[in-house]
């Protein structure tokens, strides 16, 4: 099985967990992102040998006016028997999040973009990254991947 297929299977498992545990109710974007992050951490705890960290350093860098900006990942999970799993959680189309995930995937990590909000996804998602999308208008989770 390819790394991409393994990542898709992992995303499906996360999809099932979030579908069973996430309750949509009126709250701010920050609150939703915070809750989703907490649920991803809780999901990781159900797997023996997985160690999750938030705001973990990324291999991705970008130039900014004052120098080099080093990326940080929303969630990085070290897994004993599998490659590292990295997850970015966003309510909008953040190019920087996608760039971090692609950079991590190029080093062998499995990368999931947990995107939630409204369905107008405008950024193409390259194959090393699996998109897990929560449609806030329908309050349903969709697991899909779009390639360039």
Can you describe what's shown?
This protein has three helices and six strands; from the N terminus they run H-H-E-E-E-H-E-E-E. A hairpin with a 2-residue loop joins strand 1 (50-64) and strand 2 (67-79). The longest helix has 19 residues, at 3-21. 30% of the residues are buried. It is of the alpha/beta class. It has helices at 3-21, 29-45, 95-106, and strands at 50-64, 67-79, 82-90, 110-117, 129-135, 140-144. The model is unreliable at 141-148 (pLDDT under 50). A six-stranded mixed β-sheet has the order 1-2-3-4-5-6. The chain has one domain: Trna Endonuclease, Chain: A, domain 1, CATH 3.40.1350.
Task: Sum this structure up briefly.
By secondary structure, the protein is an alpha/beta fold. It has helices spanning 3-21, 29-45, 95-106; strands at residues 50-64, 67-79, 82-90, 110-117, 129-135, 140-144. Helix content is 32%, strand content 39%.
């Amino acid at each position: 099985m390819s790394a991409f297929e393994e990542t898709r299977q992992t995303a499906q498992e996360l999809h099932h967990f979030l579908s069973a545990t996430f309750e949509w109710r009126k709250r701010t974007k920050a609150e939703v992102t915070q809750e989703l992050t907490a649920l991803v951490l809780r999901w990781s705890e159900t797997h023996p040998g997985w160690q999750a960290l938030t705001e973990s350093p990324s291999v991705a860098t970008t130039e900014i006016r004052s120098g080099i900006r080093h990326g940080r990942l929303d969630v990085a999970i070290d897994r004993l028997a599998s490659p590292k799993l990295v997850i970015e959680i966003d309510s909008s189309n953040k190019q920087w999040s996608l760039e971090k995930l692609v950079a991590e995937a190029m080093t062998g990590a499995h990368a999931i973009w947990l995107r939630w909000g409204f369905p107008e996804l405008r950024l193409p998602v390259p194959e090393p990254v699996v998109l897990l999308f929560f449609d806030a208008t329908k309050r349903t989770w969709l697991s899909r991947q779009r390639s360039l």
